[in-house]
Fold this sequence. Notes:
Rossmann fold, alpha+beta, globular, 5-stranded antiparallel sheet
Amino acid sequence: MRLRIAIVSLLVMVLTASAQDFQIRTRVDLVVVPVTVKASGDKLINGLQKDDFVVFEDGQRQTITNFTSDPVPLSAAVVIDTGLSADSLAKVQQTFPALAGAFSQFDEVAAYRFDKDVVKLVDFTKNPEALEAALKPVREIKPDTRQALLPGGPFSTIGPMINGAAVVPPGQVGSPVTQNQPKIKVLNDAIYAAAADLEKRERNRRKIVLVVSDGVTNGSTHSFQETVNSLLDFGIEVHAITVDQTVLTKKFTSLNDYAKSTGGDSYYVGSSIQSIETAYARAAEQARNQYVLGYVSENKPIGKEPIFRNIEVKLARADYATLHRTGYYQYPQD
Length: 334
């Protein structure tokens, strides 16, 4: 009996010590920052080493403890905007074979579509044929021309409005002018749903949302900031393929903001099918081949609320540009 008690006591001590050791280790938060480096002409730069990078958090230089440039498999959530203009939607529908072909045999891909609702088409799969089959119903969708899509750029003009309704200028003869309501396009909700599913995937994968849209959002339950916070919490990048925008107005869409905030990229594809297909391949290649920097933050959380920490990555070469997430939320330690 004494021997059994001694053995049980020893096991309790070992388990307690292991639990304490585990708690101590989990208090050290490794901040992981995937970084894309580009030269002029949008050329990806390879072959850099750890000493080529300097990381700042809230202006304070950090010590890079982990570094790798090895390619990693992707967990990609493809989000297709089916509320595009008739011409753009028809072109996007023809690119689905190239979309499936942009990913490798090691990547896993889920697909969604959205307009006024978010529809999940297929859960994560490594089978390109399964992805193409899931996208087949999207190829049969006809554009909705009953509602006018109000321009979202800062240089758009839609005429005089009162409480959202168009008015007839003084002296104009004829029946009252009617203005079609803008389309409901829940872009934020679609990205939020994709992020929630990506969060459950394995940690050794790079997680991205690849969205094809014009960037117009109207009627979403989730705000832009709420969605960005979710992406940053889960370490998810947004790679946005922007259609139905000019070179100038694309800079003002939420797609560009999503990409900049999360360390992804925005690809303006103009109006050709080939440019859309090329953007698929570029986005997948860029996401898969990034430098990954890791550091243990020297900043300590104060109080009981999470603190947003700004991240800045610099290079010795001033003519190189870096793309990375703008920061992360540091949570108080228990």
